[in-house]
Design brief:
The structure is a homodimer. Chain A is of the alpha+beta class. Chain A has nine helices and eleven strands. In chain A, about 40% of the residues are buried. Chain A binds a DNA duplex through helix 8.
DNA sequence: CGTTTAATTGAGGAAAGTCAAGTGAAGTGG
DNA sequence: CCACTTCACTTGACTTTCCTCAATTAAACG
């Protein structure tokens, strides 16, 4: 299956999950849940703020709160048996997190920029859901999205060489910006290099070298630590999507 | 968080998803759905059979059927941009697959042994769900489990060395056998070496070497291609769970 | 402006990849 | 039931990439 085709389809198809009742688009459901009923929501939610670097919750804690990001970026991570931190996903405004587990959280989360978020008590949300089962599909959709995203991440992790890994990552970030309706002239990277390395399964040194390599080959331009511009789109795409490219 | 503690908790906690209505255990729900109401189910499901190696559905096809395995093993895979096959997950009896996408399947699946499965038309299942929203939580639970499993897989993929990778994989298989109530004297591997390599993100050669290494070091005994016995449990555990072990 | 944190770069070594040849198991047809 | 073909797996030789450790430079922050 071609990549372009897949991307287009993803945009068309992910809107609706036809096997679910309450066949609303995600955008519409987000509106209904988080914008249309502020007054009603206020009863079960509050606004939480986190400083940069602050831990939000940890793997294994009892699951009591669920969050929806208003502004900022969050990293979800696990520690592997060998003690290393592995970032599972980055979360952006409108993303929902905290509900992927059962009785306890299954990942840890940390604010990597200052974060403002809605905070729901899990019990209140449960009641809300049983009163209005249609909103269910919103959550299921979100979880399915997360699942699909995780599978793509696994694919990324098993790529062999650092250059295509990084190019694919940058492309994913760009895609996400597009989805959120932001400009894609520049790619914005709110996280530190270490975080990217932990997401891609590379050492910090290797990641840094790869940034330098892509920059030296004039494929990307590193405006500053948080902003990257794609210069040579053709080679860039080849790297991200290409067959068996190394550097 | 300690590993042993985590495993115990996983067993205790995953049974119920308290933020869901219809707070039934997974085991109970499976019974209700697939054993208690055979007659009712017969109307919306049929039995499907697949030969070893047969493709069940492909990534990108329109999602029309959902399956529950009765006997046999299925591999779910994606092809990455560089053309390589990457196995996302192995599926065993009672596992559900096909519903993780929206309008289309998001992975391909293939029978790696002869497979017998219930086959549901997606549309029929949708009706079933809207009539009985409580069964919803069964599906959500399954998806959350899958998500959690995928995250563990990602962790596995980003481990550096092949020996701990393989040990962890074997341990996962053992754990799964335990969950299914099977004996754990031997680890049964229904899939080919190639499949394991594609799951672990290793070359076939590297995987084979690692099997040989563990065997030479008398950590495991390879009774035959499909059956492995753990001899030195202590070293084995250290490999699978240990900090910074290489070989 | 100085101190701390984040990121880049260099040198050396180790693990896994690739290519290729060889062995073992399984399945088929006479 | 055995010979033959095919497929699955193992092992060897060589190459490459990334990791580790360490030193240096750049940016952020008080």
């Amino acid at each position: 299956m071609q990549k372009g085709q897949r991307n287009r389809r993803a945009l068309e198809d992910r809107e609706a999950y036809p096997w679910l009742p309450g066949n609303l688009s995600r955008e519409a459901l987000h509106k209904v849940l988080f914008e249309g009923k502020r007054a009603q929501l206020a009863q079960i939610s509050s606004i939480a703020q986190f400083k940069k670097g602050e831990n939000i919750y940890s793997d294994g804690e009892v699951l009591d709160k669920i969050f929806v990001i208003i502004t900022g970026t969050v990293a979800a991570y696990k520690k592997s048996q060998d003690g290393k931190k592995h970032i599972v996903t980055f979360l952006y405004p409108k993303d929902l997190f905290g509900l992927w587990g059962g009785r306890r959280y299954i990942v840890s989360t940390e604010a990597i920029t200052p974060v403002v978020a809605y905070s729901f008590r899990a019990s209140a949300l449960r009641q809300q859901l049983s009163r209005n089962p249609k909103t269910y599909s919103y959550f299921v959709t979100k979880i399915c999205d997360q699942l699909s995203q995780n599978q793509d991440h696994a694919l990324l992790l098993s790529r062999l060489y650092s250059a295509p890994k990084l190019a694919t990552f940058l492309n994913m970030q760009r895609q996400a910006q597009l989805m959120r309706g932001e400009s894609t002239d520049e790619i914005y990277l709110p996280m530190r290099r270490t975080d990217i390395a932990e997401y891609l399964g590379l050492s910090l040194a290797a990641l840094s070298r790869t940034f330098s390599l892509l920059s030296a080959r004039r494929i990307i331009k590193i405006r500053n630590r948080r902003h990257v511009i794609i210069i040579n789109r053709k080679v860039f795409e080849k790297l991200a999507n290409g067959r068996r490219t190394r550097k």
